[in-house]
Amino acid sequence: MSSIKVEIVTAERVVYTQEAEAVIAPGVGGQLGILPHHAPLMTILQAGELVVRHGGQEDALAISGGFLEVRPDRIIILADQAERAEEIDVARAEAAKQRAEERLKDRHMAGLDETRAEAALRRAVARITVAEKIKRRRNL
Ligand code: ATP
Questions:
Q1: Which of 77, 73, 76 minimizes the C-alpha distance to 4?
Q2: Fewer beta carbons within 10 angstroms: which end of the chain, N or C?
Q3: Where are the alpha helices (DSSP H) in 47-113?
Q4: Residue pLDDT tens, the chain, 140 long
Q5: Which CATH code fits 4-84?
Q6: Atom 10 in ligand 1: which residue has the minimum CA distance?
Q7: What does residue 29 show for φ and ψ, rounded to 5 degrees?
């Protein structure tokens, strides 16, 4: 089966690299599936779950938006923030989710930055989704 190198980096670190058979990324217009030999592409990602398939298994990462570039020899994801499933602190993400939900409950609250609260909520939900997925898999 053909494969392509995937690199997920933030401004601070290389989060993940893998020779992969497929990548499913959270594009702004919906899920984006990329296979080896995909045409060159640059696109914007939103906060969500990013899945990498390789050797009959799947790795999941939470990303909080960024850019995805498909080059002939690699897929590069430059993320604002990204965590591998095992790096995610679920309690922290639950607390962030709760804070964002509290803020969004009263949308007319003076000084509320609604866009910021919604983005924080999306990041938290992505982290919880990815962490729970790996937990479920370990319990199987
Ligand atoms: P919080 O309010 O908990 O800080 P946040 O969404 O505002 O969450 P970010 O600004 O996206 O946090 O990330 C700041 C740094 O903390 C990044 O390095 C990110 O990878 C890390 N991070 C944030 N939340 C978590 C988490 N739940 N588990 C592990 N790392 C996290």
A1: 73
A2: C
A3: 90-105
A4: 899 999 999 999 999 999 999 999 999 999 999 999 999 999 999 999 999 999 999 999 999 999 999 999 999 999 999 999 999 999 999 999 999 999 999 877 778 889 999 999 999 999 999 999 888 887 77
A5: 2.60.15.10
A6: 81
A7: -95, 10
C-alpha span between 129 and 98 (Å, rounded): 15
Amino acid occupying residue 106: D
Q: Which CATH entry fits the domain spanning 88-139: 3.40.50.150, 1.20.5.440, 1.10.540.10, 3.30.43.10? A: 1.20.5.440
Query: Which ligand 1 atom is the nearest neighbour of the CA of 80?
Result: 11
Atom of ligand 1 nearest to the CA of 91: 27
